[in-house]
Amino acid sequence: MWFGDGDTAEPNRDLELLSADERARCARYSYRLDRSRFAAARAGARRVLARYVGGEPAQVRFDRAEADVLGDPADRGDHRHRPLVVAVRGTPLYLSVARSEGLWLLGLAVDERIGVDVEHVRDFDTAGLINRCLATEEREQVNALAPEERGAAFVRAWTRKEALIKAAGLPRSTPHHRIPVQPTRPGAVRVAQPDHSGRQSGSWTVQDLPLGGLVRASLARPAACAGPVRWTDTTTTGEPRLDTWRAQLPDLQVG
């Protein structure tokens, strides 16, 4: 796991690393600050991945994994979250990128699908979102909390659900209330994956990530994946040396 702060980035240097498609997406943001934050997140991911695959950050090529997960075939393609993947010495390295305001998060996993999400806790219509996005048992759990605690609990639920939707390659239209994630329970939580008919199929684990403060972040990965989660905060450590990256993927030959 990699974490960075786009508000401390250098926009011009970041833009130089982006692909034509990424620059076009960046240009669609109306505000300069949003463009800068988008560029920082994409450039940060490229700098990390360049250390794994070799070469320069601007040369990193992203591919999409095949949409081979359960669901309605009509939802495949652009309507579906298909995980990003790069190859390291022929081994697939799955990745997931998330961003909230200036913060960006990159998750990497060897030969396993992965999903991450990050959100700031803000003032919002907690009651309305709880009713629309949470399952019945989740609503009961969150509403049993003190009013000032419900917003953070909802954001925890949201990031867990979004991380799983990304990891499983579910349709973007998947109703969030079909994915109960026990938002008041800390630690790793086992979650069943819903298919297009609403039945539960597949098994995943979602867990919180240690960002702290008014930020909630989550990781989703297959339940059978029991390896440790390694964490690198680039806002405090600076750019790690190459041997640090090697330590994160000990089974790969990283040149």
Q: How does this structure look, described?
A:
With 255 residues, the chain is of the alpha+beta class. It has helices at residues 11-17, 20-27, 32-53, 126-133, 136-143, 147-168, 234-237, 242-248, and strands at residues 2-5, 63-64, 84-88, 91-100, 103-110, 115-120, 189-194, 200-208, 215-222, 232-233. The strands form 2 sheets. It has a 6-stranded mixed beta sheet. A hairpin with a 2-residue loop joins β3 and β4. α1 packs across α3 and α4 packs parallel to α6 (147-168). The longest helix is centred in the N-terminal third of the chain and has 22 residues, at 32-53. The protein is globular, with a radius of gyration of 18 Å. Mean pLDDT is 79; it is low at 67-78 and 240-255.
Instruction: Count all strands and give the number.
Output: 10
Radius of gyration: 18 Å
Shape: globular
**SS-based structural class?**
alpha+beta
Q: Unreliable runs, pLDDT <50, ≥5 residues?
A: 67-78, 240-255
Percent range for β-strand residues: 15-25%
Largest sheet: 6 strands, mixed
Share of helix, binned: 25-40%
Distance between termini? 20 Å
